[in-house]
Amino acid sequence: MISENKRMERRGLHPVHGIFLSGTIPLFLGGLLSDLAYSSSYQVQWSNFASWLIAGGLIFGGFALLWSIINLFRADGRGMHSILYTLLLLATWGVGFFNALTHARDAWAAMPMGLILSVVVFLLACASTWIGFAKFGIRGGR
User: How far, in Å, CA of 42 to CA of 107, rounded?
Assistant: First the structure.
């Protein structure tokens, strides 16, 4: 009985929200690694790979951001951690969008700003994912 009550009191991330949140890390990391490969080889295809991976990270991050905004308006989601988490997701998505616009230019024109933005967006994605899982956990988990 007591463990049932504790489980009901602690509201974690929905598992689908966790999938969207954790999906941003490998996609933005892939974009960063593709930018690193392009900066060392100057093969244009690496820049194209980075563009697509960043777009995928924006899709996953957009759904995670939308979910966190909806959770902010729920009665139990108005804590300081929820606001910080949502702001980090918003910053991740904003920098990622600017990174996607930078990568939409010619491959030569995208560097070095594209590489710098890829590093920043990857670090923001890591920070928001860490806060999301460390502070909220997964709903239904122990």
Answer: 9
Give the span between the Cα atoms of 92 and 120, in whole angstroms: 8
How does pLDDT run across 66-121, given as a tens digit for each residue? Answer: 999 998 887 665 688 889 999 999 999 999 999 999 999 988 898 999 999 999 99
Q: Is residue 10 part of a domain?
A: yes
- Give dist(CA 134, CA 31) in Å, integer: 25
Q: CB neighbours of 126 closer than 8 A, spacing ≥ 6?
A: 25
Distance between start and end Cα atoms, the chain: 15
The CATH number of the domain holding residue 43 is: 1.20.120
Contacts of 71 (CB under 8 A, 6+ apart): 77, 82
- Domain range for 56 is 2-136
Task: Say if CB 14 and CB 141 are below 8 A apart.
Answer: no
Question: What's 132's DSSP letter?
Answer: I
- The number of folded domains in the chain is 1
The 10s digit of each residue's pLDDT in 65-74 is 999 999 888 7
